[in-house]
Predict the 3D structure of the following.
Amino acid sequence: MPPKAALKLKQTTGAGGKGKGLRPVRDDDDGATHTEAGDQGDDWMQPKSLLKPEDQLELSEAELKEEFTRILTANNPHAPQNIVRYSFKEKQYKQISSVDQLAVHFTLDGNMLHKESDEARRQQARLEGHAEVTSSKKYRKGHSEPAASELGEPAEGSGAAEGEGAAEKPAEGAAEARDDGATPAPAKPEKLTNQFNFSERASQTYNNPYRERGTATEPPPRLNFSANVSQWEIFDAYQEDFAKQEKNKEKKVVPGRKEEDTKKKKLTAVEAQGDDISKIAKSAKIIERMVNQNTYDDIAQDFKYWEDVSDEYREQEGTLLPLWKFSYERAKKLAVTSICFSPRYKDLFAVGHGSYDFLKQTRGMVLFYTLKNPSYPEFIFSTESGVMCLDIHPEHPYLVAVGFYDGSVGVYNLTENQNAPVYLSTAKNGKHTDPVWQVRWQKDDLDNNLNFFSISSDGRVVAWTLVKNELEYYDVLKLTLEGAAQDGPDGVQLFSLGCGTCFDFHKDTDYLFLVGTEEGKLHKCSKAYSSQFLDTIDAHHMAVYKVAWNPYHPKIFITCSADWTVKIWDHNIKEPMFTFDLNSSVGDVAWAPYSSTIFAAVTADGKVHVYDLNVNKYEAICEQAVVAKKKTKLTHIGFNPSHPIIMVGDDRGYVTSLKLSPNLRKMPKAKKGQQIEQGPEVEIAKLDKILSLVREPEPAKKA
Amino acid sequence: MAEEGGEKKVVEVVKHTYPLIRHSDMQDEMRVEAMELCVTACEKFSTNNETAAKMIKETMDKKFGPSWHVVVGEGYGFEITHEVKNLIYMFFGGNVAITLWKCS
């Protein structure tokens, strides 16, 4: 073969040279045959046509013959010649001479192995193994059942050992069935380690039995309701309702009128807080009074019927019988600062509580008691500041003017069921700067507005008018002290004001009133002049506590003072008609309403002094200590306008009622066969008769 | 008397437009609220009882939970089952009757 191939090469090269073109190269075998035949001649072969690409350069013969010399070297022309690297050895950059000249243009991995090489052997070994496997597969196809059982058995055995589930039983049974037909399989050299070689291990838990349980809630209660609506039904309903409303309104109005007109007011007004209570309030009140009547039955009997028989044997003196004692839990230790009887209800009286101690001021209270219920006040008003004085309006007995220690004045309305005053003066509208010592209602003014006066130790007498919702005020009088004007630091005259402590208005002469001061002076004043007094009397050496006109005689008045004296004056005479020394500070004095000659005074040593000028012009006809404790001071006194009893208040908050014995309310003796005359004229005459004895040395005085 | 009555009626017909509760077993608070709601709705939709009823129902559903039923009308009869303490039957405006109850 080698010589033939060499021949063929020769031929082809020769042919290529002749034809100057490309000639397709044929397969070796064919080429060999052709070459054999080619020796005989080329003519029978197909003529060779040259195919030229269209863009081939047309070259001339000379150009074609031109030689281009190419020299092949072992150097890579693209390899860089000038690589420089840093040589650490010589510590400088150095050109590298040995440049890699290798250039790889094409690589192809061969697929031929040497038979003796390791790789070849390994492959050989693998091929053999594969052949065995395939052969065993073929074998199994023939006897598939025994093979499967062979594989399955170990898995099942382990599964059965582990789980005792019922589900495995059929599988086991199947395995047994297969075992019957099982034939021993040839031992395999190794176990197959493919991913499909798994064993199934299933188990199942017990299913819990189901149980049903249910509850039903109770449905919300329901009701049936039915009605018919039509226009006339609606109309009728409105009519009915309206009628009912009207009725209610009337009902409400009727008691309201009664309250104003009759005396039921105090019963209904009390504790009308809730509907439930107000329904039984009246009956509860009656029951309460009945209980009290039973409790204090002996006192009530005394009040009505007891007359001290010993008076018959005593020529002139009389006694006081203690009756009820009024007190209220929250008013204890609050001094009684005023007592005022209701002009309409004979059994009702108001008590003001406060403190006379300048250093120890407390809250105050206004309490209304009735003789019918000594255990609990009828009305209770508590105040922040101490109450110093009060006065019940003579025509509207539900209105109470109150003066406070802080200088303010207020008006309470008993019909309004509230604890706060309906009117109250404020710092903005004329409030006094010092305690208010006395308030007194006046006749309605020209516009029929209610008004009252107040006096305070800030030296002012102020008139207050109740206009709608507020109090209007104007200063009636300023109590300037005579000769007390001092030069102020800037040469301004400073007028110091006297401290008013009490006043009283003349019953008949409307403009005339008396003012008592802390300096002991007594001013006769007129409402018309605000800057000057009609007259001034140096009445006492210490503060005047009370001044009061005689209820019968228009010229006579009485004063009491801290200088232990009580004095009776004729307002035209600067000297007192009578002077009585009571050996203690006199807190209050009051004329008896039933006689012109009788008056009573209370002193700080706890005694009540009752005088009757008609009986004794020099000494009291009764002088009696009425307090339990020695230190208790009596502060105020009040005569009941119709019953022969007096009320005395002390500085511990108690009010004691005392019955006057017959001698203390003795009327002019009835001469034999002569009719007992009564009336104011008689009283005035009686007093005048006594006074005339005193006046004798003063001829100027005209009766 | 008759004349007086007649006169009175004429006056009163004009007058009586206030809400008048004919029957209710609600608690006070709820009753007042329901009544005010009815008044508001009937005043707002004085010409359309249906929308008024719708408003009442929806508001009551919101405030007191479902399911409320309302009848607003000038003349009708009814027999209903309602949950206890959830019924109000009232007149308003002199010619409208409102029945409002809950039954869920």
